[in-house]
Design goal:
about 500 residues; alpha+beta; Alpha-Beta Plaits; five-stranded antiparallel beta sheet; four-stranded antiparallel beta sheet; 15 helices; 16 strands
Length: about 500
Amino acid sequence: MTDVTAVKSARRRHRHHHWRRDLVELAALFTAVAVADAVANTIAHGPDGPYLLAVSAVVLIATAAFHTWWARRHSHAPPADGDGGGDTGGAAPATPAAAAAAGPAGTATATATAAGTALWRMRTTVRDEPGSLAALCTALARLRVDILTLQTHPLAEGTVDEFLLRAPASLPAAELTRQASAAGGTSTWIERADAHDLVDTPTRVLGLATRTALDAAELPLALRGLLGRCTIHSVPAVSLSGRPTGATAPVEGALEDGETVIRLRDPHGGVITVERPYLPFTPTEFARARALVELDARLGPRIPRGQDVLTLPEGNEITVRRADQSDLRAARAMHDRCSDRTLGLRYHGPVGDADRYLDHLLSPRFGRTLAVETASGRLVALGHLLWDGDETEVALLVEDDWQRRGIGSELLRRLVELAVEAGCASVYAVTQASNTGMVAAMRGLNLPLDYQIEEGTMVITARLSAVESPDAPSGAPVHRSGEGHRQARR
């Protein structure tokens, strides 16, 4: 019902109410006149006139008191449910205008109500029959738990209900689980939530689809945002050595291993595997993930085409942009111009194997790549942000003639910005202790660093908690995984 309709309805009830009250008052007036006439005649013609007069006064006073009580009760009572009204609770304003008029006092009340509460995400399976969900909601209401959102995931037998709850801070998770089980819920799972979970599901899904449509590298991130804490493996159809991996999946995808693994056909070849051992996927989640991958397949290869033109200290201009597999030939040409020492510091292995890693490294499935071009269009540097299981790796390669000019530091800074945007908790770089350029670039980030050195190999990890990003999709780290990343680091 709109505000206008509600006001009109209230006016009709108001007019109807006054008409009834006027009729009753008119009837009471005629009755009083008749009683007064009878009393007057009795007093005038009877011997007990004074006594009857006193009794009449008492009756009139009692009648007036009853009429006053009755009028006040029916004039100020809230409308009954049957009249389209509802219980306001005696605290909240009845209309948006009244809420606005409350001003800071209303805000303070809302803040006080939210204080001392905690957000929880709870998922439980109930019987698919009338009243089962009502019993569960009643049990939560007895604990003074507020249900903020509810999603239903139909199963062959039963329904999985997923709640976002606001509960008293003193209420433990074990008690919530116990009450849900007592109300008929089974396979109950619960974890703490945060303010990011307050976004409704349709809005969140549309946002993830939009990000996927703009950038093919967003698909792993979008799947992670859609399905929660999970590990994503992207297994290519061809290995780094050029041999078929045998990775296949049905065209429609599949739920495997007790419904804790989703296998989907990768539009770029190979298979995308999503694992969530702690909580089985529902058919609804499987259908959403498949729809997102199908959207990616229909849109084809794409990366944002924005670019930045920078001027180096000596005056040369360079362009920094996103790169993909269309830059493979230019990247191989840069390899040919690099010295064996530069390639060895980057790939930590035989220099002759460097070229075969490029196709994998430039694929948007395994991360994001930045390229640096000169004014003549020659590619002279690459920076990679690689999804590696529960961690994220950064790697740099700068052509010999363009080193020591600040290009590596600029690339590394931008890669860290991309990692923060993706919600990563940290990034790490694998290099050799003798690679002073990479060490200096990592230290130039001005972030907390951890160093690990083993047999001449150094791993430098930068924690990103000090870096804020307004575009981060979640307060929790976002992790992805790609098959073969550790091989590509060699």
